[in-house]
Design brief:
The complex is a heterodimer of chains A (185) and B (733). Chain A has 185 residues and is of the alpha+beta class. Chain A has four helices and nine strands. Chain A has helices at 2-17, 52-59, 118-126, 163-167; strands at 25-35, 39-49, 64-74, 82-96, 101-106, 111-115, 127-134, 146-153, 179-182. The chains are: A alpha+beta (185), B alpha+beta (733). Chains A and B meet through strand 5, strand 6 and helix 4 of A and helix 2, helix 4, helix 6, strand 3 and helix 7 of B.
Chain lengths: 185, 733
């Protein structure tokens, strides 16, 4: 089982290697979860650097969806770590040629904002401040466990014709490394 | 249970068509399956790989069958090749032109004029909206100036009044850092105002900002797509830290037109951008569809061909089995078509062949049984049976024939009849007789033949009969021999015995009165005839008495020959018996014995007194025939021959021997070469030997005297037990 786990990680690493080399990619700089009585608040800082292909697609009206996945996982010996809690945040960014603005929609919480420049939009996208997720009242994560935040371009939300190419193109297959931290008391 | 091929193929194509159809549907923009396109693509790709594996496996199977020159492999290979060529050629042509058509169709979507039209419509929209936005900017500028004149305490109230007056949907007073100072909104459910991006505030410091915003509010609502608003952001005063943001809704009609233009332009740009991707994805889908269909067709073709070839393969294997003699194999009828009829006919044919073979086998066994029966019967016949072919060649002979004729038939089987005489010259008369009778007579004939060989004379009763085949044609002849020598001898002995008995009876009775009468004549007449007459009378009567005594002796001998007592068989050790007899002949008896007796001779079941008589008679015969001292050699050997086991007892002397003309009658009564004796000695010897189941013969090849060869068979098992007891008794003694 350990070998299987290592093999899977190796495959993922090889898959991820194809994204290295260009001046683009996603990175989670920091992240934290604050537990409240019936909610968890996510605060995170993310750097988005789009590849030229993505920028070109965006400027040609292709909507892009960025998914921020937050997990609480519990380590297990000899097995994959168990995910005990997970929430996804989908952000769609689209360029409007008449308005000449980039519209960003938080599809999870149904918020939206417009930005005259892509950089502004990406900066705004990268600042997640106390995004609240509802949890069962009084639920606390098991010990030991760690938090994990990663962000990736959701290829499945692209137009269907782009998907086969996107799956095999490193400029499309953008995925951040997971940011992990131990959850303390 | 085996599914029908047609149903299997229909199910297979159904399974393949479902994901293909779903994938095709997923390429349509409005389809809900759009989101499953990747999975459907993957499923179809995996299906192609699976089918590729199945087709590859079948091709590998076909190659192996072809290399092994398996039955039906060539037919299967040709059919597969034909099917692939027939299926692939039109499919490839269709694919090529579909590919071309697809690419041209996608290219035809885009045109320079449409590009320009789209650009123009967008520019037109921008220009039309610019006029409106500039007006709203001036209006907002005036409101900002008014608001600057209002004391800070009543700005909130004034802001609300100005918003209502200007027709803005929302108006917010905020600081440079983006902090809200005051806000007023037309909506009642809005808690937070639509905040500008900080970059907009920076942008608005000098000349203000005015622009369209596709986000009418911070919260996404259902009718957002139909709402476009104008955002105006201006400093309240020059170098002031306060900014006024006003959001103006566009009229519904303008909003709708603007959205339409924007959506159309965006869609056209998006399609232009996706042109290559569309070509690639459509081509991929088309290729995958073709590949999947072709692979499925080829696999179905393999299934069909294998099912078609299976009966052919079975037929070939069945034919090979029949050729190798296996007629019991029956082929299963898999299909009820022409091939099934062929297989059924093959089964019928092999069944009939099998029945014919079984019948032939039964006939052969019957013939074999009959032949074995005949061989057994012939083998156990005392009569010799010899068959000849129609060309008078020797065909078969039974054991008795070999024994009677003294030949080894295996060495002359198939040879002409004359080879009998070559194998045994004594049979030349017989061969001549047979040849003559076969030429002369067409029917059954019978004749006695006397053959003379080293063993002596044999009287054969020979019967001949033609052999006829099933068609009545003559196919040879069968000869039956009976050795009637013993019978003839027995008849002769019986006659002699009868004669001896009658002689004894008829002669012996008057001899005593003759003798008494002669003695009385001498006694009565001797005193009366005087001395001279008395002397004559005495001589005469003496002669009469003497001759009567001689006659009595001869008559007694005849009587003894005629009435030999019954045998009293018991275990006899021949070595001991001979020693006991020879002990009665002392060295001065005129006989010098030479003994050659095998050690460990088997015990005979015989009458020892009679065997002693045999030896006495032979010794006496030698003494009477020869001049003393007579050298007599006695040898006894254990002989094992085919079908006979016993002792060969040879007694030879160095006397004058037996003349050839008398050799045949030497064992007959009253035949003698000596001046003395009754002529019954050897006749009694022969009678005793034959009563013991043995034979005696005069060895004619022996020229230094007379040599008698006696053969006595070894006792049966019961007698063996008796002999064992006898030996034990002797050992104890």
């Amino acid at each position: 089982m350990q070998h299987l786990k290592i093999g899977t990680w190796c495959l993922l690493c090889l898959w991820s290697l194809t994204t290295i080399g260009g001046d683009y990619g996603f990175q989670v700089r920091y992240a934290s979860l604050v537990f409240q009585q019936d909610a968890v608040a996510l605060t995170s800082g993310i750097d988005y650097r789009f590849s030229n292909t993505l920028v070109e697609a965006l400027d040609n009206g292709v909507p892009l969806t960025l998914t921020v996945t937050t997990r609480i996982r519990q380590p297990r010996r000899g097995l994959w770590d168990e995910t005990v809690w997970r929430r996804d945040l989908d952000f769609q960014i689209q360029y409007y040629p008449l308005s000449q603005v980039y519209r960003v929609v938080d599809e999870t919480n149904r918020f939206q904002r417009s930005f005259p420049r892509l950089e502004s939009a990406l900066v705004a996208l990268g600042e997640l401040n106390e995004i609240a997720f509802s949890i069962e009242e009084g639920w606390t994560p098991p010990r030991p466990s760690y938090g994990e935040v990663e962000v990736w371009l959701n290829i499945e939300r692209l137009p269907w014709a782009l998907r086969p190419i996107a799956y095999f193109s490193p400029e499309w297959r953008l995925h951040s490394n997971p940011y992990r931290w131990w959850i303390s008391q | 249970m085996r599914l029908p091929l047609s149903l299997l193929v229909i199910v297979l194509f159904g399974i393949i068509l479902v994901p293909l159809h779903l994938m095709s549907s997923a390429t349509q923009k409005a389809s809900e399956l759009n989101q499953w396109y990747s999975w459907l693509l993957l499923i179809n790709a995996l299906g192609s790989v699976l089918l590729l594996g199945l087709v590859g496996g079948n091709i590998w199977w076909l190659i192996r069958q072809f290399r092994k020159r398996a039955a039906g492999s060539r037919l299967a290979f040709r059919m597969v090749l034909l099917f692939v060529v027939l299926a692939l050629t039109p499919a490839s042509i269709v694919f090529y032109y579909s590919f071309q058509f697809l690419h041209r169709s996608i290219d035809s979507w885009f045109d320079v004029e449409i590009d320009q039209a789209m650009e123009s419509s967008l520019e037109l929209g921008k220009a039309a909206l610019d006029q409106r936005t500039q007006g709203l900017r001036q209006r907002t500028q005036r409101l900002a100036e008014k608001l600057a004149e209002v004391p800070e305490e009543v700005r909130v109230i004034e802001l609300n009044r100005l918003r209502e007056k200007s027709g803005a949907s929302e108006m917010t007073l905020l600081t440079r850092e983006g902090r809200i100072v005051a806000t007023s909104s037309a909506g009642v459910d809005l808690i937070l105002p639509s905040m500008p991006d900080p970059s907009l505030i920076t942008l608005a410091r000098e000349h203000g900002y005015v622009g369209l915003d596709p986000s009418p509010g911070p919260v996404v609502t259902e009718n957002d797509n139909a709402r476009l608003q104008v955002r105006v952001l201006l400093p309240v005063q020059m170098e002031s830290s306060l900014f006024l943001q006003a959001l103006y809704p566009l009229p519904y009609r303008i909003n709708l037109l603007a959205r339409t233009v924007e959506n159309a332009y965006a869609h056209y740009r998006q399609m232009g951008y996706l042109r290559r991707s569309l070509k690639f994805s459509f081509s991929l889908t088309l290729a995958l569809t073709l590949l999947l269909s072709m692979l499925a067709s080829i696999w179905a073709a393999f299934l069909s061909i294998r099912r078609i070839v299976a009966p052919v393969k079975m037929l070939v294997q069945g034919t090979r089995a029949v050729a190798q003699g296996n007629l019991d194999s029956r082929l299963p009828i898999l299909q009820k078509d022409d091939m099934g009829f062929l297989v059924s006919s093959f089964n019928t044919m092999t069944n009939r062949l099998s029945q014919a073979r079984d019948e032939a086998e039964r006939s052969r066994r019957q013939v074999e049984d009959q032949r074995a029966y005949l061989e057994t019967v012939l083998g156990h016949l005392s009569s010799g049976v010899l068959t000849l072919s129609d060309q008078t060649r020797l065909r078969t002979a039974n054991q008795a024939a070999e024994s009677i004729l003294g030949i080894d038939f295996s060495s002359i089987c198939g040879q002409p009849l004359r080879s009998l005489a070559e194998a045994n010259p004594a049979l030349s008369d017989l061969v001549q007789l047979i040849r003559t009778r076969l030429l002369e007579s067409e029917g059954i004939w019978q004749e006695e033949v006397v053959i003379t060989d080293q063993q002596g004379q044999k009287v054969l009763l020979c019967r001949g009969s033609p052999l006829q085949g099933a068609d009545g044609r003559r196919s040879g002849a069968v000869l039956v021999f009976d050795d009637i020598t013993t019978l003839v001898q027995a008849q002769k002995y019986a006659a002699w015995s009868e004669m001896a008995r009658r002689l004894a009876h008829e002669i012996k009775n008057p001899l005593t009165p003759i003798q008494l009468a002669a003695e009385r004549l001498e006694r009565k007449l001797k005193p009366q005839v005087g001395p001279e007459g008395g002397a004559v009378l005495e001589r005469s009567t003496h002669t009469i008495v003497q001759q009567v005594e001689a006659l009595k002796t001869m008559v007694n001998a005849f009587s003894e020959y005629a009435r030999l007592p019954k045998l009293q068989p018991q275990p006899v050790d021949m070595g001991i018996l001979i020693e006991e007899v020879l002990a009665l002949y002392p060295p001065d008896s005129g006989v010098v014995f030479h003994l050659d007796v095998d050690p460990g001779l088997p015990v005979l079941s015989a009458d020892p007194l009679r065997l002693r008589q045999v030896l006495h008679n032979l010794i006496k015969n030698a003494l009477e025939a020869g001049t003393q001292p007579v050298h007599l050699t006695i040898s006894v050997h254990h002989v094992k021959e085919a079908g006979w086991t016993g002792l060969e007892w040879v007694v030879e002397d160095d006397g004058p021997g037996v003349a050839p003309e008398q050799a045949e009658q030497i064992f007959d009564p009253y035949v003698t070469t000596k001046s003395r004796g009754t002529g019954l000695g050897l006749a009694i010897v022969r009678k005793i030997v034959e009563e013991h189941g043995g034979t005696i013969r005069l060895d004619r090849q022996f020229n230094n005297g007379a040599r008698f060869v006696i053969r006595l068979p070894v006792e049966s098992r019961a007698h063996v037990d008796a002999s064992e007891a006898h030996r034990n008794d002797r050992a104890e003694i």
